[in-house]
Amino acid sequence: MTILVRFYVDVFNLPAQKRRGIIDGKQIKVRTASEGRLWVTMPPEKDWVEHMRSVQGRKWHPDVKQWSIPVTEGTIDTFVRRFVDLPVGRDSCVQEQFPQLRRCSPQGGRWRKKCTDALKLKGYRGSTEKAYVGHLERCMHLTGVHIDNMLMPDVRDYLRFSKRVGKAKT
Questions:
Q1: β-sheet with 66-70: strand ranges across
Q2: Which residues face 28 on adjacent strands?
Q3: Under CATH, which number does the domain 28-102 receive?
Q4: Rounded distance, CA 130 to CA 60, Å?
Q5: What percent of the chain has pLDDT over 70?
């Protein structure tokens, strides 16, 4: 077992209720698709609305105060790219239908701070911190899964790949 896997287990393998906690209470929620659209509820944050406006085919429904986006590969990929660092919650059936949403997390981009804080508490050097964060970023990029949604098989796949290309020591 590598140091990276042990670190992953220590820091990110927390009980689900602890991982789901949202610090400021603001979260984007994605609901099941109906009529060929995904329904998105979010607070009226200026930046978030701008992100949503960049999604092709999005539609605002003022009567229910929700956005909807067409269920196409391109629009969902655009949504994920724009919202990957923001807190996005979704129900399990949406995640099963659209696996690319696994790249989004209820925690948003807070994983990096959580990671660096944990490394500092454990007394790791800045160079080790940089290496671990780099590994985690590459792991998320390679697997297409956000760290909060990552499972041990995802980490093992990344480590096998890294070992083959000479990027990780086991």
A1: 59-61, 66-70, 37-41, 28-34, 88-90
A2: 88
A3: 3.30.70
A4: 41
A5: 81
